[in-house]
Amino acid sequence: PAPINPNNFPAKLWRLVNSPHVRSIHWDASGEGLLIDQPLFECELLGAGPGHTTGPAGDGTVGAADLFKTKNFTSFIRQLNLYGFHKVVMGPAGSVAGPGPGSGPGGGNGNGNGGSSARPLHHFHSPHFRRDRPDLLVHLKRLTSANKAKLAAGLEVTSRPPNRFQR
């Protein structure tokens, strides 16, 4: 398979969701989606609260604001959408209705599931982002207008390989 650029959004997201030091973003119970606690994510990773000068481990490492080049949660959600993630909306009585409307940046809060937080969680899903399946990351492509045109024409969209400084 093609090498995965460690500096692209999916690879950075993979490292965060699998980090034992990050509490604000984690796998859902099935390992097929992400649960994001927005207030904690903003404080812990985007530098919107005390202690934002250190990374997720609290050891002076780079935080997500540096990783994702934003301090805005809406911009982070937009990146998820550009890579094909969809917000999972909750159906009646807490059952998951599946990806649906409201997956955009202004889509509101989902109730989430499987989280221990009393706050609502944002629940996002992508068929190519699964726990224990890093091999699927090569299928996550940024949905630019050029890439959408290639996909519509039945062409393959390739990831940019790591440059010589990233290898």
UniProtKB/TrEMBL annotation:
Single GO MF descriptor: sequence-specific DNA binding
Organism listed in the record: Balaeniceps rex
Gene3D superfamilies per the UniProt record, alphabetical: Winged helix-like DNA-binding domain superfamily/Winged helix DNA-binding domain (1.10.10.10)
Assembly, per entry: Homooligomer.
Pfam families named in the record: HSF_DNA-bind (PF00447)
Entry similarity comment: Belongs to the HSF family.
Key word DNA-binding present: yes
UniProt lineage: Eukaryota, Metazoa, Chordata, Craniata, Vertebrata
Top-level taxon of origin: Eukaryota
Main location: nucleus
Record-annotated HSF-type DNA-binding domain positions: 5-143
Stretches with biased composition (Gly residues): 97-115
Phosphoprotein keyword on record: yes
General function of this protein: DNA-binding transcription factor that is essential for male fertility, spermatogenesis and meiotic prophase progression in spermatocytes under non-stress conditions. Positvely and negatively regulates gene expression to ensure progression of meiotic prophase beyond pachytene stage in spermatocytes. Plays a role in male germline meiotic sex chromosome remodeling and silencing through regulation of SMARCA4.
Protein name (database record): Heat shock factor protein 5
